[in-house]
Amino acid sequence: MYSALNRCSQRSTRPWLSRITRYLLCNKPIKKLPDMTNRGVLIRPLKKSELINVKQLAQAENWNVGEAEVDLMWELDPDGFLGAEIMVDSSPRIVGCASCVNLNDSYSCGDLFIVEKPYRRQGIGKSLKEAIFVQAGSRNVSINSVCSDVESNVKSGNFPTISFSMKVFEGCLVTPADLALHAPTDVVITPYTGDEFEELYVYDTEVHVIPRRQMLQGIIGTKDAHTFVARKENSIVGFGVSYSIGKGYNVGPVFADSSQIAQALFRRLFDCLPKGSNIELTAPEDNTFSVQMAKRCQLNLSFDMIRMYSKEAIDFKAMNKVFSLTNSGFGMV
User: Fold this and answer.
1) Which of 75, 76, 296, 325 has the most CB atoms within 10 Å of its CB?
2) Which ranges in the chain belong to alpha helices (H)?
3) For residue 140, how far is the Cα from the chain centroid?
4) Is the per-residue pLDDT at 16 higher than 50?
5) What angle do CA 94, 99, 102 make, to 5 degrees?
6) What would the mean pLDDT of 151-170 be, rounded to a whole number?
7) Cα–Cα dist 73/150, whole Å
8) Quick check: 42 pLDDT over 80?
9) How confident is the model at residue 36 (pLDDT cuts 50, 70, 90)?
C-alpha cells in the first residue's frame, strides 16, 4: 500500500483511521476533500513533481496544454491541483485530475477535469468536482465548458450561470500578406522591455477585471514568449503575447482598443513565430474581427466553449478589447 500511510499506520494507535485521515497526518493539513477511500480512491492535492500526471492525462485527451502554463498556475496556487489516486499492481497511480486556482478572495478558475476512460462513471469525476468547491471555499468558480456539457452543468446546480461563448482555433499558421498593411499611423508598436510592466498591468486589469500581477508576469516571462506593446501618445492602447505550449504556440492574450491595433499586434506576433508553426488562438465568439482573421489565417475551428460560473457572471465592461483570450483554460479572459 502507500508507504507513507503504512508508516503513519504503524505509529498510530487508532487502526480505524481511514486512509485519507492517515494521509493528512503524514502530510501538511489540507481542507477536507471528498472521501472515496471505501472505493479504493484517494482524492488529494498534487505536488509540483506530480504535475507530469496532469500533463499526461491532458495529452491523452489531445488537449494542447503547455508545461509552462500548468507550472505557472501551480505557483499561483500550490493547493489548486487535485488528483484521484488508485493502486495498480501495488503502485499508486493518478487516474484523474482537476484544477481550481484561487485568483483572489472572491474568484477561482476551474479547469482540467479529466478522468481516464477505464475509470469513468465510477464517481471519480463527481468527487473531483466536489473537491474543487472545497478548494474554492466561498469563491465564485468559473469554468469553460464544451457545449455538450452546458446543460448538465446547469442542471447539477454547480454552474448555473452562463456567460459568453468563445471559439478555439488551431492549425498551421498562414499569415495573409495584407494583414495589418493599414495599421494606424498614430500607434507605435514596440517589443516589451520590462520597463513598462506597471503600465501594462494597469491596462490588463482594466480588461481582465481581476488583478493578476503574478500571472501576467509569468505569462510574459514564459519560455519563448514574445510580447508587444501598442502606444498612442505615450499611453498603452493594447498589447499581445505569444508563448510555446504543448504543440506549437498560444497566441494570447491580445487586448487592444480597436481591431486595427489588434491586427497590427497579431501581425507582429505571427512574424516572430517559426514558419509553419502550429498555433492556438481563443477568440470571443462576438469578436467578429478575430473569428474572421483566424479563418483568413487558415486556422481550423477546434471546438466551442461557454463560460460558466458557480455564482454571478463577471461583468467584463471592456470585453470589446479582448481579441484573443489568455488561453482556453486558465484566466478569466
Assistant:
1) 325
2) 3-11, 19-26, 51-60, 67-76, 124-136, 150-156, 197-208, 213-220, 259-272, 288-296
3) 16
4) no
5) 145
6) 94
7) 25
8) yes
9) low
Q: Which of 4-8, 147-151, 250-254, 268-272 has the lowest mean pLDDT?
A: 4-8
Q: Which residue has the cell 513565430?
A: 273
Cis before 29? omega within 30: no
Q: Band the pLDDT of 330: cuts 50, 70, 90.
A: low
- Residue 87 CA: distances (Å) to CA of 3, 18, 123: 12, 16, 16
DSSP SS3 for 222: coil
C-alpha to C-alpha distance for 224 and 243, rounded to whole angstroms: 6
Cell digits of residue 168: 478555439
**How far is it, in rounded angstroms, from Cα 290 to Cα 281?**
9
Whole-structure pTM value: 0.86
What are the grid coordinates assigned to 263, written together? 491586427
Which residues are 241's β-sheet partners?
Answer: 227
Helices (H) then strands (E): counts for the chain: 10, 13
Q: Give yes or no for residue 110 having a pLDDT over 60.
A: yes
C-alpha cell at 98: 482537476
CB of 116 closer than 8 Å to CB of 60: yes
Q: How far is CA 271 from the centre of its chain?
A: 25
Residue carrying the nine cell digits 520590462 = 194
Half-sphere exposure at residue 265, Cβ-oriented, CA atoms within 13 angstroms: 32
For residue 324, count CB atoms less than 10 angstroms from its CB and return exposed for 0-12, middle for 13-18, buried for 19 or more.
buried
Dist. CA 148–CA 181, nearest whole Å: 40
pLDDT tens, 272-298? 999 889 999 999 999 999 999 999 999
For residue 139, give the H/E element and its range: none
d(CA 16, CA 136): 30
The Cα 324–Cα 67 span in angstroms is 20
| Three cell numbers, residue 277 | 508553426
